[in-house]
Structures are given as C-alpha cells and as structure tokens.
Amino acid sequence: MLVLLVLLIPCACSQYTDDFVHKPGMCITQGQCNGSIPCAVHPTTNNTISPEGEHRVMLHKICPMYKDEPQVCCTIDQLEEFDSMIAVVKSVIGGCEACLWNFRLLQCAWFCDANQYKHLQIAETRLMEDSTKLEATKIRYFISKQFATRIFNSCKDVRASIGGLAIANICEKADCSLEEFYAKLGDNRYISLKTEIVINDNPGVSYVSPVTDEHVYDCDDAVNGRTCSCHDCEQMDCPAEIESVRYDKYTIPAGAALSAILVAAIVVATACSGGDKEADAKKEEEIEIPAVGIDNKAAEITSPNLSLRDDNEDEQNKSNGDAHKDGGDVGKANGDPQTPYILPLSPQLSVGSTLSPTTAENNEAASLIGQKRPRYECWLENAPRLAEAWSNFVFHNYLLVIAICVVVIGICSGGWYNFRITYDTVELWTADDSISRQNQKDYNASFSNPYRAAQMVLKEESPTTFSAKGRFLSGVFKAEFLKEAFNMMEDVIAIEGKNGETYEDLCYKPLGEFNKTHPLMDCALMTIFQWMKNNKTLLDNPEVYVDRLELCPDSVLSSLCIGSFRGPVSASTVLGGYDDVSRNYLQSTSIILTFALDGSLAKKKGVLAWEKAFSEYISKKMENGNNMIVMYSTDRALNDEIEAVSHADIMTIVISYIMMFVYVGVTLGDFFLSVKGCLLYSKALVGMSGVVIVILSVVSALGVTSWANLPSTLIVLEVIPFLILAVGVDNVYVLVQGIQRIITEKLERNESIQPNQVKGILAKTMNQVFPSMILSSFSQMVAFALGSLSFMPSVQNFAYNATLALLMNFLLQSSLFLIVLRFDLMRQVKQRLDIVCCVKIDKVEKPLRGPTRWFIEDYWNHLVFKSKWVPSMIVAIFGVITIFHAVLIPNMDIGLDATTALSEDSPLRKYYDTVFNDYRIGPSVSFVFKPRKGDFLDIFDPKIYGQLVSNRNSLSRIMSKYGDDPEIDYIKGSGRSFLKAFERRWLTTPACCWLNQNNEFCSSINNRTGCQKCDIASATRTQRYTYLQWFIQDIPRVDGSGCTSGGAVSYAYTANFKKNSAGETIGVSSGRFSSSHGPLRKSVDFINARYQARQLADEVNMNNEDIEVYAYSSFYPYYEQYDTIVRDLAMNIALCVVATFLVSLTLLGFNLHAALCILLAVSMSTIDMMGSMYYLGISLNAVSVVNLLMSIGIAVEFSSHIVQAFIASPAKDRRSRAKDALLRTGPAIISGIAMTNFVGILILAAAKSQMFVVFYFRMFFAVNCVCLIHTIVFLPAFLGFLG
C-alpha cells in the first residue's frame, strides 16, 4: 500500500542542476518520461497548457480544485496515471471525504498548478536513454506548516478499510508524528523515486514559497455532500457510547438475588423451627407414645395385621410350648405396631425386657395410641398399611410380580432402538427456538458461504533471533525454518484422503474454478508464502524476503502481497505472537498456515477423510525432534479428541461402578468374627441385586426418553447413574438394616427365626421404612420434574431422565427388591451361605456392630450432644460458613473452556494455548440487516441508505464507533460494508464499471474491446442495482492495473436481491456487514464478545425504524446459554427447593416444622456447594448446573431420612430424639450413600479428561462431603437445639 501511495508523489534521484530557473507562470515538470517519473522542462515563456475537451473533463474529475484554471502543468497521461492511483488511496482513506480531498490537493498542487515554480525545486535530473528528455529524479516540495498540519489532522483518525489507522499504514508504526508521516510519504525504497517534502513557512530559497492551506478542508467539513465517519474525525459528534458489560466474574444481580433467596429461606426455616420451648415441651408430652408397657396381646389387638406370625403360627407355638419365641416378641420390642414411624430399640429396654403391665395399663396404652397421634400420622396412616399389604402380595405372588416387572422393563428398554447420543454442542446447550438458533438458521439459509479450516501453527522450541538488513527478526523467519515450513505446506497439499482426494480437490475456492491452468491458485490458502507468491526460491536470500515481510503486513492489497486467490492475506491471520501495540511483525513468534476447505454437504465426506489424514500427518511431524514445535487443529479435531478421551475414560467409569458394586456387596451384611458368620449373613447377592435394579432403572428411563426421540447426552450417562445409585443404594441399606435389626435382636436372645416368619418381618420392615422412602423419592421426583422447565436442553434432558429413573427405581425397589429380600431371608433362616446357597452351616455367634454404627453410637453422638452448648455452637458455626459461601456465590467463574474437555497430554491443548497467547484477531462477526416491515429494503432510497451507511446512527457508523473505541475490547476494526465499498471505491474507480453494447458487464480481467465506461452520473435506481450485482461478481486484478476493487472475493454472499415480476432488481431482502472480534482466549471473552455484538445491534435497532439488525458469529449459539444461565439456575434451584418443601409438608401431614427443617438443610447444602465452587475452581455452566440439581436430590435423600426418624422417635426431649434419629439413620446414610459414592468418585480422579476430573471427581466429591456433613453434623445439632 505504501508503494502505491508514494507513487502519488512524483519524485526521482539524480544530479541537481541550476539550469532550471524559476519564473512566474512557468512549469518546471510536465508529462511523464518513464512510467510515473515526470519530465523536467526548461522554463520558457508560456510553457503551461490550456486544458480543452477531454483534458478539461479529466481535470474536473481528478483535480476539481483546478477545474476552472485557464492554465495547468499536468498532461492527460499524468491525470490518467493519477486517476488509477487515487483508487488505491480510496481503499485506505476513502471513508473520509475531507481527507481524500486534501490528498488530491497535495498531489494536484504538485503537478497541475501553473505556478510550480513557487513550491517545487528540481534537485536531480537524469538523461533518458535514447532520448533528449530529462527525468526529474529528485524533487523538493515546499509546503507550509499550517497546510501540512491541517492535512495531517484531517487524516490522522481515519481508519483504513484493510484495518488500522490509515496514517499508521503509511508510517508503518502505530504512533506516527506529523514529521514522520511526511518523511515516510516522500520516501520509497522500492522504485527510483524520491520526494523531499519540506515543511517550512520561511524557505531558505528566496524564490520558493510554500503551498498554503487555501483549499484545505477540515475533517468535519462536508465535501461533495459527504462527511467523515464520526470515528474518522475527533471533531465529529459521535453518538453516546454504551457502557461495556463484562462477565469477568459474573457480577450479575441474579447471583446475589439467588444468595438472598436461599439465605432468606434459612432465616425463615430457622425462625419457624425454633418455636416456643415451653409449647414444644407440652407438645412432646402430648404426642408421647410409650415404647414399652404393651404386651404381645395388646399389640395384636391394636393392629392384628402387624403380627409377625404366619397364619398357622399360634398352633405351631402351642405345640412347641414356646409361645413367646416367635414374631410376637419382635412386635413387642418395637412398640405399637400401628404407628407408621420407626420406634427405637433402647439399650435399656431390649426385646427381651418385657414389663408385664396390668390390663388397665394396657388399655390406657391402647387408648393413648388410638387418640393422641402426631398430626402427620393422620395423613400417612394408610401408607404403612398399604406397604404391608403390598409386601404380603409380593411375598405370595412373586412370580406374577417378576413377570410384570420384566414386561415393563422390556417395553421401556425397547426404546433403545432409537437411542442416540448427541455431541452437537449447539443442540446440547441451546434450545431450538432460542434467538441464536433462529439467527443461525436464518444466516445459513441467507448467506451460504460454507467453509472449514485445517490449521497448522509453527513455533521454535527454543526461541532465537537473527539480523537481516540491519533489523532483528524472530527465529521463525530464518531461511531454514521457513523452508521447512514451506516443505510441510507442500506435503499437506499432497495429502490424500480415503478416496485419493487431495487438498486441491477439496479446498475452498472463493472464485470457483477460475484458474484453469493452475487450479491450486484458486484455493484460499492463508500463509505468509502468499506474500512471496509461493516462490520458494525467494527464501534463499533473506535480504529479498525480509523486504516482503516488511511491506505486506501494511499493504495487503498491493500487487506484490495479494494472495493467489485474489484475496488479501492479513498479518493477523498468518502471524502470531507479535506486539499488538507496536505491530512489529518481524518479532512474531509463530507462523500460521490455514488450509481453507469446502464445507458444502457434497464434499463433506471427502473433507472429513482428508482432515483425518491431515491430523495423522501432523501427529507424525510432532514426534520429530527438531527445533520446530508443530501444532494443529481441524474442525473435527475437538470432537474427535472428546470422543477419544471419552472412550479412554470408559474403563475408568466401569472400574468406578465395579468398585461401588463390590463395596455394597461387602458392607451390606452384618459383621462377624467367624468366617461362617460372615458368609451366612453376607448380603453380596442382595447388594448386587440392588445395584442391578439401579442399572435397570437407568436403562428403562433412557429407553422411555428414546421412545420419545429425545437424544441422550454424556452428562446424562455420567450423572444419572451416580444420582440413582445414591438414592437407590440408600433405600437398599435402609431396607436391609431394618431387617438386620430384627434378626440381631433375636440372636441376642438366642432365638431363631422360622421360615413362616419371613413374611411378617418383610411386612414390618416395609411398615417402618416406606414413609421415609416415599418422602425422599417423591420429593426428588417432583423437584427434578420441575427442573424440566429449564430453557437449556441439557438440563431438560437430565430432568426427564432423572425423574423417570427415580420413579422406576422406586417401583422396582418396592417390588423386585422385595422378592430378592424374600429369598435372601429364606436362605438366611435356613442357615445357607450367601452366593453358595447349597452349603448349609450350623448356628453362628451374635453379629458385631458395624463400624459406622459403632462410630456414631459410641463417639459421634456423645461428642455432638456432650453438653447443651455444643449443638448451639455447631449451628452458629454452620451459619457463619453458609453466609461466607453466600457472599462467594456472585464471584463464581462462568463458562466452560474448550481445554477442559481435553486430556493433559492432548496435542490440541498446546494448540489452544498458542491460540490464546499468540493470536491477534478473533472470529469474524456479521451484522445482518433485514426489513422491519415488508420483504425487502430499497437500499438506494436516501432514507434507507442513511440508516445503513451515512446517518450518525447508521449501522456502518456504529460499527466504526465500536471498532475504534479502545474501551471496547471485543470488536476490532471499523467493519466491512459492501455498500460503502461499492459506492466509494468501485463506482469511483474508472477501471471498474464497464459494459458492452448488450449492457453486459465487462470485467477488467477480460478483453474490453467494444466496451465503454458506465454512465454513473445518470444511472437509474434499477441500473445501480445492476451495477451493485456486477461489483459483487467482479474479480479483482492483482497486478496493480485495471480494477483492483472487485468484490467477488471480499463481498460474495453479502446480499440477497429481490426482483419484481419483470425480473428487475428492486431491493435486497437481507444483507450483511462484517467485522471481527478481538482475540478471544477464555469463555468469558466469548461471552463478552457476543454481548458487545448484540449491544451494537440493539443500538442500531433502537435508532433506526426501517431496518432490523442482528449479530451472528459461529460460536454465538453455544454461548447463548450464558445469557440466562444464572436465571435458569435460580429458577431451577428455587423450584426444586420449593417442591421439596411442599412435598415434604404434604407427606409429613402438614408438619410445618419438619418440612422447614428439610428446607433448611437443603438450602444450606446448596449455598455451601455453590460457594465452594469458587475456591474449587469449578465454573458455572450447564454441566455444573446439572450437578447442582443432582446435589439437591442427594441433600433431600440425606436430610429426609433423619428428619423422619426424628419425628418418629418416642424420646421425651429434642436432644434425645436427635440422638436417636442419628443412631437409626446415620449408619445407612454414611454406608449407603456417602461411602458408596466416595468409592466410585475416587476412581474418577484417574480420568484423562479434565471434564471428568473437575466436574465429576472434584464436584461430586464436594457434593457428597457437603451433604454428608450437613446431615451428620449440622442437622442433628439443629434438631437437638431447635427441633
């Protein structure tokens, strides 16, 4: 670009002669001697020219400030040369009419002014070969300081259409002073021309006077009815700027609001749960139910259905003379069998310590049981009876139940025929009816310009520097390094896909099959070798190719630098790691080779195969031990890597599940000192059956959603099993431990259990645990069902599957698992070993207490309730911790970086690290405009044209404002407008718009014989639309001659034209202006970039009534989730928590205090989990949202059991009831949920994918810790303090 600009300052280099005397009214240069070098003429009388005819017309057009001058010094050939050159100047400064006028004035005063003697001085001349003419090889051009300053100021803020400031492109530096500007403008290293521009109001040569500023315009002046863009001129009044919103830490009101809501829930729950102590004491006395004092007969009278005797048991006992060694003892030990809650086994009042009350006492106890029951019993009194009846039905009809379950599971699982997993991030994170998805569909339908990219980044392993032409350059520009890179480029071009297709066959060709001789030249291959015309021999001499490296970054449209595909190759796309302020490209630390590929469906299969071969080639190159680091990426690389990592982690997940299976099988049974006892009371098969039921639940749920054609996701496959295992295994432990308590108590009395007592034991167990099971299961089901109201497809998918899996798990545990327990209990009663059922043993010793029961009973209970102050201290400490975590919630990071899905040793990780650190430009962004009313826009209507280009609040000007504002980090450059390029460059360049006698377009790349210039001035609106379509189709010349402003490369697919019934174009149905984002490194950058682009579009829509604009880039649909993720999270958590509260309130017989206790525990667990995400480095995204919803389910499972046990406890004071509840449910919670999950989660720490490590190992581990601590530490203390 600098070369062509300097051509406008005619100059030369040779010997100065004093033969040229300066006289008024005399020319000292005239005409052209050698190309653009002017001829020196001796001053003679009347050597000026009087322009006539075409000469006058051209003078009027090219130098309008001299249009009325009677005499000039410039000839027609000089005007024609200047006319072709000024077109190039327009490509740099055409956005500001005043600046362009002043540039014209600077040139026209030089070669057209009839008084050249006043401001020009010939310093050197040279005699032309075979001619008597003299070339003016060096000239001094004197201008005044005011003239120079006003021209400089009118152009200093003008943005070049190729990017950056126009003056910076000329000076080749960002901060260019007035003196440096004129010095650079007059200096040219590539041709033998020099102009010494002298800025001096008092020239030393008496007969030379500087050019003054008589005809100079300031940048805010209107020239030919056009003004500068407000961001091309600091004097212009730009629209008020909109403050940029960032998500560096998601300081969004919804985050604080969520914290406030949950804290408020805690306060309300705490206040309501406290109550009046005196009233509570009275209430406790009112609902007190004696645990003892009821003999077998009383128990049978009050609830005959609960007797553990079978139908013929009484007769059997009479005949054995052992009427008290039957199931009635168990009924007596557990108090009133009509109560639907669990009555504790007090160590002081064991099963064998009957008090033998009187008949009156029995009647009083029976009366008490019948009249003064807790309120919740009135609502759930039928549930235990139904559970008993169902247990008896399953016991007798197990074959029918098995058959029904098999059929149901088979039908549900049949949906796996339609099962599919979606890896499409857009489909996964963004709803189909979302704004970004709709914009994406509209954009793809309107502007079909599909291409893909395979990219290779090369760096030195040990950075070096070297010197050439007196400049220090980065080692990546060494000839050896560049030759190796060139060889790799040739190797890549020769790579063949599966069907033998090469890059030449599959590349993206902006101009189609234009170059028939060398088709590869049509490929959009973006490398620095395009600056060298892909000529490898230039690399043999650093002195030669360094010139190109210096020239081309700021002169991308120069014929020396433009790509073979006739498009510009900007430095930001082929170089990385340079300083973005100084723009010292020679210090770049990496070079980037981008192979653009055809993205059409027709070639997709071949392109995918070629990309795979490309990846394999680069992987081999990466293994070579040289000083070159090779990194790569393709459009399919990330998905391939995620799939490979997922497959590699399958074994990790399988081992995780196996470990959980083994743990459940080992720990579910009782503990004995002898091997026989362990084998007899082992529950390995029961544990395995419970886990299999969990798996069947998940399989059935996925089958049902597959029947509905809902795709599954990796999140569902990874999270749902853990959730259902947590809930399902907990119920397994509760059921098994309920049975074990009964059996253990009989063993303590040296009693045996007969086979006909099995049915009664199962019924009694269901009577005790069913209320707790239904409370936790239905609370979670309702909560997750409401979670499906989320706007995020991944969360919806999780909610559907979680709800169905919980339902299936509850149903199967209430049916199939009861059958498993039936046969296992039968085996145990018959003294047969677990697994090896054919082996029968003798009687064994009494079982030992399990480690968790031993820990809670002997240590933890005593520690928590050591004194009345300990519970209050625990509650206070947890309150402070929760407030602390609530404060941290608004500081959570937001987003999900691509590198999180990669393994630590992934080759793509190095690529992304380099991209984040070295790239100086981000993804392109399009601002699509459409009619707000009707189906087309007449863009040449002054009103519409103004809204698009020329008004203060037009789309083009607001794009310039955002791109030039240093406070806006994520939109760079003033944008590319096909309308501005058409109006201000193509139409005003004489070599561009030509037509033949048939009114057909004549391109400058073809023979124009018989063609003539378009009559732009008198063109009708229909003709202007025709010209616009020619412009978009026009292929630019790359040799510097003809029309270099054609839009076929840069502006293809930018407008959709609307035609009337006669076939005439009457407007556009849609169009787009383009710009670029700044370098985007982290998720927060992508979020901010999208937000600022939307902000720009909203500002345009707000200020223009006829056009509607939306911003679109390929990554927008994925990041739209973050527009509403905080709102979605708040809504889902609120719905889940409220649903849990309402279900608990209903199932607990509207026991408000109990429901509030569950609400309190769940809310505090949720707050603490969200706050801990901050210092655990877990960001907020769809994956963590799903995990947070899962944590609510686990918190409900943990807390509901202990609250239910607290309510059911017959102890007289809250501390005793809290201790009893913890003793009853603590072991099952620790063994059944926490430890089972911990065993599986710890294995995930070995996963290769950072996604597993961060969001599954780290977050699952935190979820289990938080929920367990709140259940085992906080909730018992709170219940003992304020329950």
Helix fraction, binned, reads: 40-55%
Helix tally? 44
Largest sheet: 5 strands, mixed
Please indicate the percent range of residues in DSSP E strands (runs of 2 or more). Answer: 5-15%
Question: Unreliable runs, pLDDT <50, ≥5 residues?
Answer: 1-21, 188-192, 240-256, 273-379
What is the overall pLDDT average?
Answer: 75
Radius of gyration: 42 Å
Distance between the termini: 81 Å
Number of strands: 19
**How would you classify the helix and strand content by structural class?**
alpha+beta
- Shape call: elongated
Subunit arrangement of the protein:
single chain
Structural description of this entry:
By secondary structure, this protein is an alpha+beta fold. The protein contains 44 helices and 19 strands. Strand 17 and strand 18 form a beta hairpin. Helix 4 packs antiparallel against helix 5. The two termini are 81 Å apart.
Quick recap:
By secondary structure, this protein is α+β, with helices and mostly antiparallel strands. 52% of the residues lie in helices and 9% in strands. Strand 7 (465-468) and strand 8 (471-474) form a beta hairpin.
Summary tags:
19 strands, 44 helices, 1283 residues, alpha+beta, five-stranded mixed sheet, elongated
Draw up the topology in text:
Layout: H1 2-6, E1 29-34, E2 37-40, H2 54-62, H3 76-93, H4 97-111, E3 120-127, E4 134-143, H5 145-155, H6 166-171, H7 178-185, E5 194-199, H8 253-274, H9 277-286, H10 296-302, H11 313-320, H12 327-333, H13 359-371, H14 375-380, H15 382-396, H16 398-413, H17 425-429, H18 435-446, E6 451-460, E7 465-468, E8 471-474, H19 479-494, H20 503-506, E9 525-526, H21 542-551, H22 571-574, E10 575-576, E11 590-598, H23 604-622, E12 628-634, H24 637-667, H25 675-681, H26 684-707, H27 714-748, H28 758-787, H29 793-813, H30 816-829, H31 851-864, H32 869-888, H33 907-918, E13 924-931, H34 942-950, H35 955-964, E14 971-976, H36 978-986, E15 994-995, E16 1012-1013, H37 1021-1033, E17 1055-1059, E18 1065-1077, H38 1083-1103, E19 1107-1112, H39 1116-1119, H40 1121-1147, H41 1152-1176, H42 1182-1208, H43 1214-1243, H44 1250-1282
Parallel strand pairs: 4-5
Antiparallel strand pairs: 1-2, 2-4, 3-4, 6-11, 6-12, 7-8, 9-11, 10-11, 13-18, 13-19, 14-18, 15-16, 17-18
Helix pairs in contact: 2-3, 3-4, 4-5, 8-32, 8-40, 8-41, 15-28, 16-26, 24-26, 24-43, 26-27, 26-29, 26-30, 27-28, 27-29, 27-42, 27-43, 28-29, 28-40, 28-42, 31-43, 32-41, 32-44, 35-38, 40-41, 40-42, 41-42, 41-44, 42-43, 42-44, 43-44
